[in-house]
Design goal:
The chain is mainly alpha-helical. About 80% of the residues lie in helices and about 0% in strands. It is elongated and about 65 Å long.
Length: about 90
């Protein structure tokens, strides 16, 4: 039960990524940032506003998708454990 207790007290954050294990993650994040800066530098104020609304919507969608993925992954893990315990 130690794991569940740590999770309850907020010592385990499911949304944190182990970025040390994923060099590609950092590389892609840098590329995104670099390209966004280039785009913003070439835009008018109206285009920047539209782009901001677009990125806000994408972030909201990503948050929802990550939440669903977390839920489905948790359920899959629970089903695997249940099946192992039933044998």
């Amino acid at each position: 039960m130690r794991f569940l207790e740590e999770f309850w007290y907020g010592n385990i954050e499911p949304m944190e990524y182990d970025t040390d294990a994923g060099k590609e993650y950092g590389n892609v994040l840098r590329l995104i940032t670099k390209n966004e800066e280039k785009l913003l530098a070439s835009m008018t104020d109206e285009q920047k506003e539209l782009f901001s609304r677009y990125t806000d919507a994408v972030r909201e969608y990503q948050t929802m998708a990550e939440c669903l993925l977390f839920q489905n992954s948790f359920k899959l893990g629970a089903r695997m454990i249940t099946e192992v315990l039933e044998e």
